[in-house]
Design goal:
Layout lengths: L1 H30 L20 E7 L2 E6 L3 E6 L5 E6 L5
Antiparallel strand pairs: 1-2, 2-3, 3-4
């Protein structure tokens, strides 16, 4: 009977410790800094005659797809056009 009482006491202590550990890990995890927030550029200078169709953004760059089926890649720090990619469609 003593063995069973000690076993139940140890099990209770382990369960309480586990719950405290899970709560502590959740608190630590939720206080961690989140991923950096991407910001939209104030203004995008498109080449002459280009009309924007869609916009996408990554870390350090952003891209604009034009109605002429070109992907224009810009540097997000300077706003300079770094690359132009022609999009080939199946038409």
């Amino acid at each position: 009977m003593r063995f069973l009482r000690r076993l139940v006491t140890v099990l209770t202590a382990v369960m309480i410790g586990g719950v405290v550990l899970i709560i502590a890990l959740l608190v630590i995890r939720l206080q961690a800094p989140s991923a950096p927030v991407l910001s939209f550029p104030e203004e995008i200078a498109l080449p002459e005659g280009a009309v924007a169709q869609s916009y996408t953004q990554g870390m350090g760059w952003y891209g604009v797809i034009t109605t002429d089926q070109e992907l224009l890649i810009f540097d997000s720090a300077t706003g300079a056009l770094t690359q132009t990619i022609e999009i080939k469609t199946g038409e």
